[in-house]
Amino acid sequence: MYSMKKIILTAWIGTTLGAIILIGVSIFLFEEIPKDFYALMVVLILGYLPFILIYQYLSIVKQRFLFLIITYIILGLVLYLAPYIGHVIFYFGLIYAALFKEKIYFVFSFLISIVIYTAIIYVHPIISLYPFMEIVQFFVFLSYTIFLYFVSKMMVRQEKINSMYTKTMEALVLAIEAKDEYTRGHSTRVAEYSIILGKTLKESGFPVDLEVLRISSLLHDIGKVNISNNILQKQGKLTIEEYEEIKKHPVFGAEIAKSLEFPDEIINPILFHHERKDGKGYPNKLVGDEIPLLARIISIADTFDALTTNRSYRRAYSTFEARNIILENSGTQFDDQLTPYFIDCFPKLKKRAEQLIELEKKLSKVMDEEVKALH
Ligand SMILES: [Fe+2]
Ligand SMILES: [Fe+2]
To answer: Cα(106) to centroid of ligand 2, in Å?
Structure first.
Protein backbone atom coordinates (compact mmCIF):
# COMPACT_ATOMS: atom_id res chain seq x y z
CA MET A 1 0.00 0.00 0.00
CA TYR A 2 1.18 3.52 -0.76
CA SER A 3 1.78 5.52 2.37
CA MET A 4 0.79 9.18 2.38
CA LYS A 5 4.40 10.07 3.10
CA LYS A 6 5.58 8.45 -0.13
CA ILE A 7 2.82 10.06 -2.12
CA ILE A 8 3.61 13.55 -0.83
CA LEU A 9 7.28 13.00 -1.47
CA THR A 10 6.61 11.93 -5.07
CA ALA A 11 4.24 14.84 -5.60
CA TRP A 12 6.68 17.31 -4.12
CA ILE A 13 9.67 15.94 -6.07
CA GLY A 14 7.50 15.95 -9.20
CA THR A 15 6.45 19.60 -8.85
CA THR A 16 9.96 20.71 -7.89
CA LEU A 17 11.39 18.92 -10.91
CA GLY A 18 8.72 20.66 -12.98
CA ALA A 19 9.94 24.00 -11.62
CA ILE A 20 13.57 23.17 -12.40
CA ILE A 21 12.66 22.15 -15.95
CA LEU A 22 10.72 25.40 -16.39
CA ILE A 23 13.72 27.42 -15.22
CA GLY A 24 15.96 25.48 -17.61
CA VAL A 25 13.64 25.89 -20.57
CA SER A 26 13.00 29.58 -19.93
CA ILE A 27 16.70 30.35 -19.60
CA PHE A 28 17.30 28.42 -22.82
CA LEU A 29 14.47 30.18 -24.70
CA PHE A 30 14.49 33.68 -23.22
CA GLU A 31 17.97 33.76 -21.71
CA GLU A 32 16.41 34.99 -18.48
CA ILE A 33 13.56 34.00 -16.21
CA PRO A 34 10.38 35.93 -17.16
CA LYS A 35 8.79 37.75 -14.23
CA ASP A 36 5.57 35.75 -14.09
CA PHE A 37 7.65 32.61 -13.73
CA TYR A 38 8.57 33.48 -10.17
CA ALA A 39 5.00 33.00 -9.00
CA LEU A 40 4.88 29.72 -10.86
CA MET A 41 8.08 28.57 -9.16
CA VAL A 42 6.69 29.44 -5.74
CA VAL A 43 3.50 27.47 -6.45
CA LEU A 44 5.42 24.46 -7.72
CA ILE A 45 8.06 24.32 -5.03
CA LEU A 46 6.01 25.39 -2.02
CA GLY A 47 2.52 24.27 -3.07
CA TYR A 48 2.51 21.12 -0.98
CA LEU A 49 4.11 22.74 2.05
CA PRO A 50 0.86 23.51 3.95
CA PHE A 51 -0.27 19.94 3.44
CA ILE A 52 3.08 18.50 4.55
CA LEU A 53 2.82 20.54 7.76
CA ILE A 54 -0.65 19.44 8.77
CA TYR A 55 -1.39 16.06 7.23
CA GLN A 56 -0.23 14.02 10.22
CA TYR A 57 -2.97 15.52 12.34
CA LEU A 58 -5.73 14.27 10.05
CA SER A 59 -7.37 10.88 9.59
CA ILE A 60 -6.31 8.89 6.51
CA VAL A 61 -9.55 9.63 4.70
CA LYS A 62 -9.29 13.38 5.34
CA GLN A 63 -5.62 13.28 4.33
CA ARG A 64 -6.56 11.82 0.97
CA PHE A 65 -9.35 14.28 0.23
CA LEU A 66 -7.26 17.24 1.32
CA PHE A 67 -4.32 16.00 -0.72
CA LEU A 68 -6.50 15.84 -3.83
CA ILE A 69 -7.95 19.30 -3.15
CA ILE A 70 -4.48 20.81 -2.73
CA THR A 71 -3.23 18.99 -5.80
CA TYR A 72 -6.01 20.52 -7.90
CA ILE A 73 -5.45 23.97 -6.43
CA ILE A 74 -1.77 23.70 -7.39
CA LEU A 75 -2.69 22.43 -10.85
CA GLY A 76 -5.28 25.19 -11.24
CA LEU A 77 -2.75 27.88 -10.24
CA VAL A 78 -0.21 26.43 -12.65
CA LEU A 79 -2.79 26.56 -15.45
CA TYR A 80 -3.64 30.13 -14.49
CA LEU A 81 -0.03 31.30 -14.40
CA ALA A 82 1.10 29.33 -17.44
CA PRO A 83 -1.91 28.69 -19.68
CA TYR A 84 0.34 27.31 -22.45
CA ILE A 85 1.09 24.27 -20.24
CA GLY A 86 -2.47 23.20 -20.97
CA HIS A 87 -5.05 21.29 -19.05
CA VAL A 88 -3.18 18.02 -19.62
CA ILE A 89 -1.70 18.73 -16.19
CA PHE A 90 -5.10 17.95 -14.70
CA TYR A 91 -4.38 14.29 -15.38
CA PHE A 92 -1.87 14.33 -12.53
CA GLY A 93 -4.61 14.64 -9.95
CA LEU A 94 -6.26 11.56 -11.37
CA ILE A 95 -3.04 9.60 -11.25
CA TYR A 96 -2.85 10.36 -7.55
CA ALA A 97 -6.52 9.43 -7.09
CA ALA A 98 -5.64 6.08 -8.73
CA LEU A 99 -3.15 5.40 -5.94
CA PHE A 100 -5.94 5.40 -3.36
CA LYS A 101 -7.70 2.65 -5.31
CA GLU A 102 -11.25 3.53 -4.40
CA LYS A 103 -14.01 4.84 -6.61
CA ILE A 104 -14.83 7.72 -4.30
CA TYR A 105 -11.44 9.40 -4.80
CA PHE A 106 -11.87 9.18 -8.55
CA VAL A 107 -15.28 10.75 -8.53
CA PHE A 108 -14.10 13.42 -6.10
CA SER A 109 -10.97 14.08 -8.12
CA PHE A 110 -12.98 14.29 -11.33
CA LEU A 111 -15.54 16.70 -9.90
CA ILE A 112 -13.05 18.96 -8.21
CA SER A 113 -10.96 19.12 -11.39
CA ILE A 114 -14.02 20.32 -13.33
CA VAL A 115 -14.82 22.97 -10.72
CA ILE A 116 -11.28 24.31 -10.60
CA TYR A 117 -10.83 24.12 -14.36
CA THR A 118 -14.06 26.03 -14.99
CA ALA A 119 -13.15 28.60 -12.33
CA ILE A 120 -9.75 29.21 -13.93
CA ILE A 121 -11.28 29.67 -17.38
CA TYR A 122 -13.75 32.23 -16.06
CA VAL A 123 -11.32 34.33 -14.04
CA HIS A 124 -8.41 34.19 -16.44
CA PRO A 125 -7.90 37.38 -18.46
CA ILE A 126 -6.57 35.62 -21.55
CA ILE A 127 -8.03 32.11 -21.68
CA SER A 128 -11.44 32.16 -23.23
CA LEU A 129 -13.94 29.44 -23.62
CA TYR A 130 -14.19 27.52 -26.91
CA PRO A 131 -17.22 25.34 -26.20
CA PHE A 132 -16.52 22.77 -28.90
CA MET A 133 -12.89 22.24 -27.82
CA GLU A 134 -13.89 22.14 -24.16
CA ILE A 135 -16.39 19.38 -24.85
CA VAL A 136 -13.87 17.34 -26.80
CA GLN A 137 -11.32 17.78 -24.04
CA PHE A 138 -13.88 16.93 -21.43
CA PHE A 139 -14.51 13.57 -23.08
CA VAL A 140 -10.82 12.86 -23.42
CA PHE A 141 -10.50 13.59 -19.73
CA LEU A 142 -13.51 11.45 -18.89
CA SER A 143 -12.19 8.44 -20.81
CA TYR A 144 -8.79 8.86 -19.19
CA THR A 145 -10.48 8.88 -15.78
CA ILE A 146 -12.37 5.67 -16.55
CA PHE A 147 -9.23 4.02 -17.89
CA LEU A 148 -7.28 4.88 -14.74
CA TYR A 149 -10.14 3.68 -12.60
CA PHE A 150 -9.95 0.23 -14.18
CA VAL A 151 -6.20 0.12 -13.83
CA SER A 152 -6.50 0.85 -10.12
CA LYS A 153 -9.21 -1.80 -9.79
CA MET A 154 -6.91 -4.38 -11.34
CA MET A 155 -4.16 -3.36 -8.96
CA VAL A 156 -6.46 -3.91 -6.00
CA ARG A 157 -7.36 -7.39 -7.28
CA GLN A 158 -3.70 -8.31 -7.67
CA GLU A 159 -2.99 -7.08 -4.15
CA LYS A 160 -5.79 -9.22 -2.77
CA ILE A 161 -4.39 -12.30 -4.51
CA ASN A 162 -0.94 -11.53 -3.13
CA SER A 163 -2.28 -11.19 0.38
CA MET A 164 -4.15 -14.51 0.04
CA TYR A 165 -0.85 -16.05 -0.99
CA THR A 166 0.80 -14.57 2.09
CA LYS A 167 -2.04 -15.66 4.37
CA THR A 168 -1.91 -19.24 3.09
CA MET A 169 1.79 -19.23 3.78
CA GLU A 170 1.42 -17.83 7.25
CA ALA A 171 -1.20 -20.48 8.05
CA LEU A 172 1.12 -23.22 6.80
CA VAL A 173 4.03 -21.91 8.85
CA LEU A 174 1.83 -21.73 11.94
CA ALA A 175 0.64 -25.28 11.34
CA ILE A 176 4.17 -26.62 11.24
CA GLU A 177 5.50 -24.58 14.12
CA ALA A 178 2.59 -25.61 16.33
CA LYS A 179 3.62 -29.24 16.00
CA ASP A 180 6.94 -29.10 17.72
CA GLU A 181 8.00 -26.72 20.47
CA TYR A 182 11.67 -27.28 19.75
CA THR A 183 11.29 -25.96 16.25
CA ARG A 184 9.09 -23.02 17.16
CA GLY A 185 10.27 -19.99 15.20
CA HIS A 186 12.52 -22.23 13.09
CA SER A 187 10.86 -21.45 9.75
CA THR A 188 10.94 -17.70 10.22
CA ARG A 189 14.53 -17.73 11.44
CA VAL A 190 15.66 -19.93 8.55
CA ALA A 191 13.91 -17.51 6.18
CA GLU A 192 15.74 -14.55 7.74
CA TYR A 193 19.14 -16.25 7.59
CA SER A 194 18.48 -17.39 4.01
CA ILE A 195 17.68 -13.82 2.99
CA ILE A 196 20.86 -12.46 4.64
CA LEU A 197 22.98 -15.03 2.82
CA GLY A 198 20.92 -14.65 -0.38
CA LYS A 199 21.46 -10.87 -0.42
CA THR A 200 25.21 -11.27 -0.01
CA LEU A 201 25.26 -13.78 -2.87
CA LYS A 202 23.09 -11.58 -5.06
CA GLU A 203 25.45 -8.64 -4.54
CA SER A 204 28.26 -10.88 -5.80
CA GLY A 205 26.36 -11.76 -8.98
CA PHE A 206 24.58 -15.02 -8.04
CA PRO A 207 21.12 -15.25 -9.64
CA VAL A 208 19.10 -15.15 -6.43
CA ASP A 209 15.44 -14.15 -6.51
CA LEU A 210 14.96 -12.92 -2.95
CA GLU A 211 11.15 -13.18 -2.95
CA VAL A 212 11.25 -16.80 -4.15
CA LEU A 213 13.96 -17.49 -1.56
CA ARG A 214 11.85 -15.94 1.18
CA ILE A 215 8.80 -18.06 0.39
CA SER A 216 10.62 -21.33 -0.16
CA SER A 217 12.75 -20.94 2.98
CA LEU A 218 9.67 -20.11 5.07
CA LEU A 219 7.98 -23.26 3.78
CA HIS A 220 11.02 -25.57 3.63
CA ASP A 221 9.83 -27.85 6.46
CA ILE A 222 6.13 -27.65 5.70
CA GLY A 223 6.11 -31.39 4.87
CA LYS A 224 6.52 -32.06 8.61
CA VAL A 225 2.78 -31.53 9.03
CA ASN A 226 2.48 -35.05 7.61
CA ILE A 227 4.90 -36.59 10.12
CA SER A 228 3.44 -37.97 13.32
CA ASN A 229 3.83 -35.92 16.50
CA ASN A 230 5.30 -38.91 18.34
CA ILE A 231 8.30 -38.86 16.04
CA LEU A 232 8.68 -35.09 15.79
CA GLN A 233 8.48 -34.57 19.53
CA LYS A 234 10.35 -37.66 20.58
CA GLN A 235 12.88 -37.04 23.35
CA GLY A 236 16.14 -38.83 22.71
CA LYS A 237 17.44 -40.77 19.76
CA LEU A 238 15.25 -41.79 16.82
CA THR A 239 15.13 -45.38 15.54
CA ILE A 240 16.18 -46.03 11.94
CA GLU A 241 12.52 -46.37 10.88
CA GLU A 242 11.59 -43.13 12.58
CA TYR A 243 14.47 -41.35 10.90
CA GLU A 244 13.38 -42.77 7.53
CA GLU A 245 9.92 -41.38 8.23
CA ILE A 246 11.26 -37.89 9.01
CA LYS A 247 13.31 -37.99 5.82
CA LYS A 248 10.08 -37.97 3.85
CA HIS A 249 9.25 -34.39 4.83
CA PRO A 250 10.86 -32.69 1.81
CA VAL A 251 8.76 -34.85 -0.53
CA PHE A 252 5.60 -34.21 1.48
CA GLY A 253 6.42 -30.49 1.51
CA ALA A 254 6.87 -30.41 -2.26
CA GLU A 255 3.53 -32.20 -2.68
CA ILE A 256 1.76 -29.66 -0.49
CA ALA A 257 3.35 -26.77 -2.38
CA LYS A 258 2.37 -28.40 -5.66
CA SER A 259 -1.24 -28.88 -4.57
CA LEU A 260 -1.33 -25.16 -3.74
CA GLU A 261 -0.10 -24.47 -7.28
CA PHE A 262 3.14 -22.88 -6.19
CA PRO A 263 5.63 -22.61 -9.09
CA ASP A 264 8.53 -25.08 -9.49
CA GLU A 265 11.05 -22.44 -8.46
CA ILE A 266 9.47 -22.55 -4.99
CA ILE A 267 8.74 -26.29 -4.93
CA ASN A 268 12.31 -27.36 -5.80
CA PRO A 269 14.11 -25.67 -2.91
CA ILE A 270 11.56 -27.29 -0.56
CA LEU A 271 12.13 -30.68 -2.15
CA PHE A 272 15.93 -30.46 -2.17
CA HIS A 273 16.85 -28.61 1.06
CA HIS A 274 18.32 -31.81 2.58
CA GLU A 275 20.47 -32.71 -0.42
CA ARG A 276 24.23 -32.61 0.15
CA LYS A 277 27.06 -31.45 -2.08
CA ASP A 278 28.66 -34.95 -1.92
CA GLY A 279 25.46 -36.70 -3.00
CA LYS A 280 24.77 -38.27 0.39
CA GLY A 281 21.64 -36.25 1.05
CA TYR A 282 17.99 -37.01 0.42
CA PRO A 283 15.53 -37.50 -1.23
CA ASN A 284 17.22 -37.68 -4.68
CA LYS A 285 20.93 -37.90 -3.75
CA LEU A 286 21.69 -34.97 -6.07
CA VAL A 287 25.36 -33.96 -6.35
CA GLY A 288 26.97 -30.46 -6.39
CA ASP A 289 25.38 -28.05 -8.85
CA GLU A 290 22.49 -30.42 -9.55
CA ILE A 291 21.05 -29.07 -6.32
CA PRO A 292 19.18 -25.82 -7.00
CA LEU A 293 21.00 -22.73 -5.72
CA LEU A 294 18.17 -21.73 -3.37
CA ALA A 295 18.12 -25.22 -1.84
CA ARG A 296 21.87 -24.93 -1.18
CA ILE A 297 21.33 -21.57 0.52
CA ILE A 298 18.46 -22.87 2.65
CA SER A 299 20.53 -25.90 3.61
CA ILE A 300 23.19 -23.66 5.20
CA ALA A 301 20.60 -21.41 6.91
CA ASP A 302 18.67 -24.47 8.14
CA THR A 303 21.74 -26.03 9.73
CA PHE A 304 22.83 -22.71 11.21
CA ASP A 305 19.48 -22.42 12.98
CA ALA A 306 19.38 -26.07 14.03
CA LEU A 307 22.82 -25.71 15.63
CA THR A 308 22.16 -22.43 17.40
CA THR A 309 18.91 -23.51 19.07
CA ASN A 310 18.20 -26.08 21.78
CA ARG A 311 17.04 -29.50 20.63
CA SER A 312 15.45 -32.27 22.66
CA TYR A 313 18.78 -34.14 22.55
CA ARG A 314 21.33 -31.34 23.10
CA ARG A 315 21.92 -27.75 24.10
CA ALA A 316 22.46 -24.99 21.55
CA TYR A 317 25.90 -24.26 20.13
CA SER A 318 27.15 -20.67 20.07
CA THR A 319 26.88 -18.89 16.73
CA PHE A 320 30.66 -19.07 16.40
CA GLU A 321 30.72 -22.84 17.02
CA ALA A 322 27.92 -23.22 14.47
CA ARG A 323 29.95 -21.22 11.97
CA ASN A 324 32.93 -23.54 12.46
CA ILE A 325 30.82 -26.69 12.11
CA ILE A 326 29.42 -25.40 8.83
CA LEU A 327 32.95 -24.60 7.63
CA GLU A 328 34.18 -28.08 8.59
CA ASN A 329 31.43 -29.59 6.47
CA SER A 330 32.00 -27.29 3.52
CA GLY A 331 32.56 -29.29 0.35
CA THR A 332 30.88 -32.40 1.77
CA GLN A 333 27.52 -31.38 3.14
CA PHE A 334 27.52 -27.73 2.03
CA ASP A 335 28.43 -26.09 -1.24
CA ASP A 336 32.00 -24.79 -0.92
CA GLN A 337 31.19 -22.08 -3.50
CA LEU A 338 28.72 -20.61 -1.03
CA THR A 339 30.47 -21.03 2.32
CA PRO A 340 32.91 -18.11 1.73
CA TYR A 341 29.87 -15.85 1.40
CA PHE A 342 28.41 -17.39 4.53
CA ILE A 343 31.61 -16.29 6.30
CA ASP A 344 31.31 -12.81 4.74
CA CYS A 345 27.84 -12.28 6.15
CA PHE A 346 28.49 -14.16 9.40
CA PRO A 347 28.62 -10.95 11.53
CA LYS A 348 25.14 -10.04 10.28
CA LEU A 349 23.86 -13.59 10.84
CA LYS A 350 25.32 -13.67 14.33
CA LYS A 351 23.70 -10.37 15.27
CA ARG A 352 20.30 -11.37 13.91
CA ALA A 353 20.50 -14.87 15.42
CA GLU A 354 21.19 -13.45 18.86
CA GLN A 355 18.23 -11.09 18.58
CA LEU A 356 15.87 -13.79 17.34
CA ILE A 357 16.91 -16.37 19.91
CA GLU A 358 16.51 -13.81 22.68
CA LEU A 359 13.04 -12.98 21.38
CA GLU A 360 12.10 -16.64 21.28
CA LYS A 361 13.23 -17.05 24.91
CA LYS A 362 11.08 -14.12 25.99
CA LEU A 363 8.10 -15.52 24.11
CA SER A 364 8.50 -18.95 25.70
CA LYS A 365 8.70 -17.34 29.13
CA VAL A 366 5.49 -15.38 28.57
CA MET A 367 3.75 -18.49 27.29
CA ASP A 368 4.96 -20.59 30.24
CA GLU A 369 3.64 -17.97 32.63
CA GLU A 370 0.29 -17.94 30.87
CA VAL A 371 0.08 -21.70 31.10
CA LYS A 372 0.92 -21.50 34.83
CA ALA A 373 -1.74 -18.84 35.38
CA LEU A 374 -4.32 -21.18 33.88
CA HIS A 375 -3.66 -23.82 36.53
FE1 LIG B 1 13.98 -29.96 6.76
FE1 LIG C 1 14.45 -27.06 8.75
So the answer is: 48
